[in-house]
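Q: For a teaching session next week I want to show students how multiple molecules come together into a single three-dimensional assembly. I've collected the sequence lines for a complex. Could you give me the predicted structure tokens for the whole thing so I can convert them for display?
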Amino acid sequence: MNTLMALLIGILYASGMYMVLRRSMVKLIIGLALLSHAANLLIFTMATLRRDRPPLIGEGETALAAPYADPVPQALILTAIVIGFAVSAFAAIMIHRVYQTTGTDDLDQLHTTDS
Amino acid sequence: MVLAVIAPALHRVAPDQAGRVLALAVAALFSLFALTPHESEPLVYAWAPSLDLHVSLLFDGLGKLMALIVSGIGSLILLYANGYLHGDGRLARLYAALLAFMGAMLGVVLGGNLLFIFVCWELTSVTSFILIGFDHERPAARAAALQALLVTGAGGLCLLAGVILLGLAGGSYELSELARAPGLREHGLYVPALLFILAGAFTKSAQVPFHFWLPGAMEAPTPISAYLHSATMVKAGVVLLARLNPALGGTELWFGMLCGFGGATMLVGNLGSLFQTDLKRVLAYSTVGMLGTLVLLIGIGTQAAMAACVTMLAAHALYKGALFMVAGGVDHSVHTRDTTVLSGLGRAMPITWAAATLAALSCMGVLPLLGFIAKEKSYVAALGAPEFAPWIVAASVAANAAAFAMAAIVGVRPFLGRPMEQGEHAHEGGFDLWLGPLALGLCSLWLGAAAGWPAAGLLEAAAGSVHGSDFEVTVKLWAGTEGVYGQALLLSGATVAMGAVLFALRLPLRRLAAGLGFAAALAPQRVYQLMYEGSLGAAALLTRRVQNGLLNSYVRTVVLALVGISLWSLWRQPHLVVSFSVGEIRTNEIGIVALILVSCLVAVRSESRMAAIVALGVAGLGVTLVFALFSGPDLAMTQIMVETLTVLLFVLVFYHLPQYARLSSSYERVRDLAVSTVFGGLMTVLVLAASTDILDAPLSEFYAQQSYLRGHGRNVVNVILVDFRALDTLGEITVLAAAAIGVVAMLRLKPARKGGA
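A: Of course. Below is the structure for the complete assembly, covering every listed component.
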């Protein structure tokens, strides 16, 4: 499964990067979203994939019984998902605004600060 | 001894005072220098002891001679400036700059530590930049100042490199220790150190091929030219070479470099002076020639050469300073410096005439002035050169003959003959204007006629400190006709005859030169121009290429650099294992991965924005399922909510944006595809390589054990976020809030009116 995930992560990164390199601002945002999926999965895979062992302490127990899925990367990813959403939302509104002001969504048209 | 330390403090003497007061102060400094006996051991002050840096002052013969020249001529120049720029509001600035320059120059000539000398050296470059560009409202003056700064500044960098190499080779930056350092000349760093130092000294002292900045620097007002270019700044290179002679001199390379460049400069400068018509430019070229002579003499390196060098140094400072001031006086009086126009001023300006005659005679090397002694000594030195003596003698005679003609053009011709047309208003300048040149001219006469008394002992000491060992120097007006002295006298005669011929032929010569395009000798000037414009152009080009404002190229550069660095470090990993263990895979998992892949490709390939957004949403759903399957229930819940919101938001926003257009060319697409494929491939390899290492996770262990006991929660991830790492979560919330504020601000502000910005 690790190998499969590695391939998936690679393809997600490649697609995201390709979209970021496009000139359309819409594609840029989609690329960012893909990159953030890739990064989340990367962290998740790094921490050893484990089936059906969520980091939940059972009733009547005081500690996690090994083996368990590592809770630390999960906490990191949780934060990353939320921040990623904030970034996406902000970027989306911003390009909307840029389009309103400049009338173009072509990034190469925006290479100067004078308009 | 403390005097040189006082000198920099003199800058603070407020510029509002009259030049005469300042001149007196500097004159007092001069007499203090004169009364202080010279000694060969340096005086050391701690400067930055932690860096092993010391200010050591070397008040030996050479130091004293130069200090006397700098302060003596300096005081006369201050006086002269007072008269020359009388009533000019910028006079205060001039005084301040001149005094700052003087302090720096004293540091150069008295410094005993190479690093200290270097600092003062750079200070003279900077202050001379201010001085040359004194008329900062004229573009020509600014260009000349910049040129001087760039040339001498580049030389300064070379010098620094040379000084450091020398310090490494010799184990010390103290001149006195370097001179005693054994095996320095055989050291591997000797040659590079020498070459760098020579580059620095040659640029400063305007040796061919760096001589072009000196005539350009004549844009400055005359007091400045007189000071910088007769007595001081240009001599800094010569002084440095003289200082280093005991440590570095005596090798084939030293002899060849100094004699070669010095000789060439001597010829170019002196002959070049004949083709100029502006008084100050004539003098500037002749100064270039004189500097060449001095370097040549140091290169010869015999005792006679050192004696000639220091005598020449003193004689030149005296007569060239006087001639510059005379030129300024003439300019001040009749408002032209064109030697083809000037004539018959002698009647109107008798005192200036007298001063000019004295200086010119000294420059010509006529009995009984100091210049004569200096010239005789230089001939004796040339005759005694260890190699190439005939060549050096021939070059010296030619150069001195040209100098003779030059002196006649500058110091004699303007005052004789019929009164010139614009000459009705010719008048003697004030006391301030004629005192300087007259005093210097009289000095030349006195030192010559009195056979160097009372300065002979000083010259001997100076020659000794240049040579590195003491020896006897006889300063005699009439050395007799025996042996080399007879030959020298003969050469002097030849010089005078040739000089007279050159003077008589100056006009045809000038026409000939114009026909031949003598300006070819100025080629280094053009090289400088090309380099200057070239570097500006290259900088602009680089900025356009690198800072092109295109996001695509920025990202591409960053990604490629990242990939390159990562691959390089992976390559160096000796035990890199990339495992392709497939392990256990379930069908539903393959399905989910396939789902993500397909939707991801659809998001990329789709021609429709809505389809792309939906595909993105499906990919997010796939990621959610991965989290859910592999024990991340919280992640799955968060992801699905965020994904839903994102899709909704994107649909709403993108609805207002234009349809996809085909913006990139096929080439760009292929190129970007290649970049992203390489990037993705790298990430895959990294994941595979990293997952072979088992992470040791004491942190996770801690949370697993303590979540319930300390955090009282059964969901470990939640406990980490809201309890153990609560502050981080607070930060996260703050980021969200900031983003929300930004979004609201952007939505509520009205768009700027079209055509506004």
